[in-house]
Amino acid sequence: MATHESKIREIYVEACKWCSIHFPQLASRDTNVTDELKKSLKFLKWGVKPYEVVIFSRVALIISAVVLLLINLIALSFIPPSIIIISISAIIPFLIAHLITEFPKTEAALERIDALSYAPTLLTQIVIFLKQNPNLERALQFVSNYSEGRISKEIRDVLWKCLMGYKTNLKEELGKLAQTWGEYLLELKRSLYLIIASMSEKNEVKRNQSLDRALKIALDGVVNKVRDYANKLYLPTLFLFSFGTVLPLVIISLLPIFSFLGGEFASPFQMFLILSVSLLIIYFYSNKIISKRPPSFTNIQLPKWLPTYPKEGNLKLIIGGKEIEFPALPYVLLIFITISFPGIFYLLSETPFVSLIPNFLTNMIKGFNTLTIIWGFGIAIAIYSYGTSWYKKKLRDEIKQLENEAIDGMYHLASRIDEGRSPEEAIKHVSENMPNTKFGELMKKTYKILRSRHTTLENALFNPEYGSLRDVHSTNVKVMFRVFLISLKKGVKNSAQMLFTISNHYDQLNRTEEKLKTTLRNALSMMRTTASIFAPVITGIVITLQQLIQDGLRSVKEGLGNLGYQYLNLSFLTTPNFSAESLQLIAGIYMLLLAVLLIRYVSILEYGKDGVMVSYEVARNIPIALFVFTFTLIGSRIALGV
């Protein structure tokens, strides 16, 4: 099942290839491009050349400029020329071209962060294995077979070259790999060099101390980098809050006032353009901040497809206690139209087709006006996000729970084996003493397989047809049991000590991960609150105040008319050509899109490149933003008597 990110990537690559074939004259292989773009495309391995990206960006610039020029020419038939529209129309094509050239850089930064986030787990597994068997080749072979991530794949490539005779010195090749990734995470390079050096240590105690130090350097380095990054988030977050939430809405509230002083500066189209540019700038700036995020820890890696997943292009919802699939696009459109129906009727009532709508219905829907369109748009976004993520989020939480319980479970297994019990008896004991836990259920299932099939422990765990780990999607848990099985070959006592080591190292890894997430959550709490509460509150108040200003100016017009002044002859009092309902619709949609961008920003900073968590957080926060916006809008109108 292709992810949204992979689809966007495929479209981008195809667009680059298509433009380079049909418009080769726009750039050549000798066209100057930044070193960052070259490095990014080389790292991503998309098969796209730098000059092809340049051609695509220039084609997009030309097409968007032509489209906006045509829109402006058509708009001149209905509204007078505006410096705001002309300026923004000139800026947008360059922003689009910039977005196209920045996309590979941002993706490369995120891929690099994602790759490096596997480093703490990878190093933990290498250290655990080397304490069991001080053979670097076997350790690297183990982690390359059972670990995930790009670094693991590169270790596999290094091993293959050495085994095939292309390279002869494994330590030297691993050092080169450490040098390459050390450019982005110095602590990883230091840790790998320490691991290499520990292999020359004859004393087991000193070798284990070197291995522990290697792991500590990596974990401490990641913690310090994330802490420093979190401390530096204050100003960027403040800028996003000010520019994304306050400034655009203040400008929108002031534009109509400018129009009263002698010029047509405010119209729905102008407001739409201003807010669109604002969203583009927020997207660019948030990506810039995200690309500088240090690696922390990898997220749970979910299977790309399971029988419980819906078909591609479908949503999965729970209705009446049953899980039901729906085609995503038709269902979301149906929800939007159904909820927005009164608002759509209201817009129709403001057109020449009003005679088609009964008067009683027109009066009834005026109470809702464009608010229902905002509800429909927001609820459609929330349902789509929820319907494509909740089942993955549930699986993700189950895997995380199992991994946390496995840390204690391994300790209990080690304790029982250290007492002289057999591994089978230890598994039975853990299954009985960890009830109502996923790890206890796993041990119970394993013991039943051992008894019923009279098979080996390895088959009871890993047999592809009936093994207890067959439907477990946690790489860490599987690695724990792989090391456990290897340690059993050296005796029960050795196995117990290895299980203690596994429990201690993974517990250390888990504690460090929680510390990092707490640090990031504290730094990002303001932005999360902004997305779901502050932005909707400010938007609702601005709309009400704007309506209050317009009502006040109507009263001024009527008062001047009663005194004998001709309102239309006063150049400093020009009637604005938009309604409060138009402002409500445009600002409300902007508020929802802003919330999506801010939630995406917070989610990626906290969880990394995890599309499941981004979608789930959007689904969770958009209804809150809608409720706060509606409550503020109604409450402020009641309070101000609008």
Number of strands: 2
Low-confidence stretches: 567-573
Largest sheet: 2 strands, antiparallel
Helical proportion? over 70%
Q: Can you walk through the features of this model?
A:
About 1% of the residues have low confidence. The chain has 642 residues and is mainly α. Strand 1 and strand 2 form a beta hairpin. It is globular, with a radius of gyration of 30 Å. The protein has 23 helices and two strands. Helix content is 75%, strand content 2%. Strands 1-2 form a two-stranded antiparallel ribbon. Among the domains are: 116 residues; 113 residues, no CATH class; 114 residues.
Features:
642 residues, 23 helices, mainly alpha, single chain, two-stranded antiparallel ribbon
Task: State the gist of this model.
The chain has 642 residues and is mainly α. It is built from 23 helices and 2 strands.
Can you lay out the helices and strands and say which pair or pack?
Blueprint: H1 4-22, H2 35-44, H3 50-75, H4 83-116, H5 119-132, H6 136-146, H7 150-163, H8 170-182, H9 186-198, H10 204-231, H11 234-259, H12 268-291, E1 314-319, E2 322-327, H13 328-349, H14 359-365, H15 371-387, H16 390-418, H17 423-433, H18 438-453, H19 457-462, H20 475-488, H21 492-562, H22 580-607, H23 611-640
